[in-house]
Amino acid sequence: MFRKILKPLASLRLTVVIFALSIFLVFAGTLVQVHTGIWTVVDQYFRSLVVLIELQIFVPKELATIPGAIWFPGGLTLGIAMFINLLAAHAVRFKFRKKRIGIILTHLGVILLLVGEFVTGFAAKEGNMTIREGETINFIEDIRSSEIAIVDQSDPVDDLVVIVPEQLIETDTTISNELIPFTIQVTEWMPNSQMLGPMQAPESRKGLADTGIARELAALPLPRANGVDGATVDAPSAYVTLMNGEQRIGSYLLSVYVDQPQMVVVDGRTYWIALRFARTYKPYSLHLVDFKHDLFTGTQMARNYSSDVRLVDEGRNVDRDVLIYMNHPLRHAGETFYQASFLRDDAGTVLQVVQNPGWMIPYISCTVATLGMLIHFGIRLVPTLRRRS
Amino acid sequence: MNQRMMLRLPGDLKSSMLACGVVMGGLGQLAFLAGCDRAEIHSYRVDREFDGSSVPIVEQKQPAQTESLGVIWKVPLSWTEVETTSSMRITTFRASNGQEIAITAFPGDVGGLIANVNRWRGQIGLDPVDEQGLNEDISHIEGVDVIIVDLAGETIRLIGSIINVGDGQTWFAKAMGPADVVEQVKADLIAFSASLHIHDQADDHDHDADHDHGESLSTPEPASEPVESAASTSSWEVPAQWVAEENASTILMASYLSQSGARITLTSLSGDGGGPLGNINRWRGQLGLPPVESIDPQGVKDLGNGGVLVDLTAPDDSGRMAAGIVPVGGQTLFFKLTGSVAAVEAELQRFEAFINAQGLGKAGTP
């Protein structure tokens, strides 16, 4: 009975169909990256159940306009299908013989690889830690998503921070919540933008904000950064109007370009509002003692970048100095800190922080699959050589 | 009829796909439910990170690079690439003051230094020089193989650079025209020339760093070579200058409140930020003063390195504004001190010191 159910799932023809669909998906997913950011493509094409593929991506716009789109199974669907197909095939046809050990190992490697991507897709997190020399930072910024932070400093010691995630700013035109002392009306949301001065902005963009320190500036929407034309990070901005009940507080320009939180006064109390890259606070902190940027003598070519940091994690009883440099990341609390970038005038460092519980799986799976192939071909090679001699 | 037109699939494949579909449907629902945790508004407490009257200054910019023949350069903010009319040219830029800068490259040393300098001298009606005379025309940029040639004819000036990036070619950047116009692009031309280098791995990481790390099926650990991020500028010694026109989105901002009640703000804008005259007239308008047609040198204080300070008071003494405009590379820093007449007076000295520390120290380079 069990076999009867599994048999259709184990079909080799199904394998071929899944492979064909996967090849097409990868092809379409590659083409669409000409116009769309890589992470949008990863989410829409490869980590989704279904994807709507626009036909226009196959023909340059300059040549012809092709309307329409087709629904297609997403990477998640195809990955799961391939996983089931592979497992079912082994369940149905599994016969342990010495000769087959290579094949079994190779398939085990492929299964592990699929599992690894599931783990990475669902559990991996990455972000940046930007630290100036002498500064101590205990949060990670996700440069692929932003948030509105509303800070209440009425407590003498610490700040109460209320976070409105980007997903809400994107979809909700009016944001109100018992945690926020005012209502936020999103007039314009720009996932990527550029900032212009008062004398640079076109007339149509002037006066959209009337309150806050950025009121004289103007933000212009830009297409999302796709990594092809130089820009790699989206710099979001938003025009919002804040309301205290029926009373209008003012229109603000919020942007990641504006580093300073802007003041909002509600019923005599002061709050601060800012649009910033999404933060995750950590139970540990990194203090940048020194950032070094060595050049090859007489050139502008970088020889080495290194960050001398002090890691303090009271919960884990850790207080130590660490040198992070190329190919020598810091591993702590399940996270890996890579030397990724630096600030202007070498004033600070940018560390990339990656948390991926499945980071070892691709290594293991590739080793297992390689071993499997070596054994399989070895088993066949030996008798062939014997026969020849 | 319809039956025949349908795509005919083998029976076992049909049942395979059906079975797979059923299993997938179930798994899909699970995945959908798992992904349903819609982001919500939440709150937390953190140690005090900023003080309303003292906020760190952080730069945000997106350096842009252009590449041709495997050589990369950074384009000054005030330059725009224009259509190249000559087939000899790699590309042509036009600076914001209208001056054209031509970029060419030829194999080998193109006859050597003297020949090239004399060729340029000839173009603006100067006699050729020998090796001794050559030294007066040229200067070197430290750290890179770039020679700057500055020639002044009777009416025309030519500033050019001869660049050896090590790709077997000699690269030239040349600006020729009225002396004062050419002078304005000299700093940018020098910085541009120094930015030329052969495309290397670090340049690739510039594009890849924020995207290609460690999340795909087959990608191993993230590469850890340093790269420049959007929050940083280039390793070029005169930063802030090299941003492509279309990405000209640079602003750094800080705002302070003084005890006397005056507000100090600092904004950095790309290019000239609209120019001193336009901005001064805007500020005059804010204080109820009529616009002026030109900047009266008597009314502004020269801060050196191209920086100026204006001090404006409203006709009815209802408010006062001191503002510093300091060009730094391809950006302009705007410092503003606003408040009552007395509050501004009380802070003026500290304000000037602030401009000196934040702006002028970096101005005027290279």
Features:
heterodimer; A: 389 residues; alpha+beta; 6-stranded antiparallel beta sheet; 4-stranded antiparallel beta sheet; 38% strand; B: 366 residues; Jelly Rolls; 7-stranded antiparallel beta sheet; 8 helices; flat; disordered N terminus; disordered C terminus
Main sheet summary of chain A:
6 strands, antiparallel
Output the radius of gyration of chain B: 29 Å
**CATH topology of one domain in chain B, what is it called?**
Jelly Rolls
Q: Structural class of the secondary structure composition of chain A?
A: alpha+beta
State the end-to-end CA separation of chain B. 80 Å
As a percent range, the share of helical residues of chain B equals 25-40%
Give me the CATH architecture of one domain in chain B, please. Answer: Sandwich
What global shape of chain B is seen?
flat
Global outline of chain A: globular
Task: Give structural notes.
The complex is a heterodimer of chains A (389) and B (366). Chain A has 389 residues and is α+β, with helices and mostly antiparallel strands. Chain A has 7 helices and 18 strands. Chain A has helices spanning 2-9, 12-31, 38-46, 75-93, 101-123, 166-171, 361-388, and strands at residues 50-54, 69-73, 125-132, 136-152, 158-165, 174-175, 183-190, 193-196, 218-221, 237-244, 247-255, 262-266, 269-295, 302-313, 318-325, 330-332, 335-342, 348-355. In chain A, strands 4, 5, 12, 13, 14 and 15 form a 6-stranded antiparallel beta sheet that branches. A 4-stranded antiparallel beta sheet of chain A has the order 3-18-17-16, with no helix packed on it. In chain A, strands 6-7-10-11 form a 4-stranded antiparallel beta sheet. Chain B is α+β, with helices and mostly antiparallel strands. Chain B is built from 8 helices and 17 strands. Chain B is flat and about 90 Å long. The N and C termini of chain B lie far apart (80 Å). At the A-B interface, helix 1, helix 2, helix 3, helix 4 and helix 5 of A face helix 2, strand 1, helix 6, strand 12 and strand 13 of B. Strand 5 (158-165) of chain A pairs antiparallel with strand 1 of chain B.
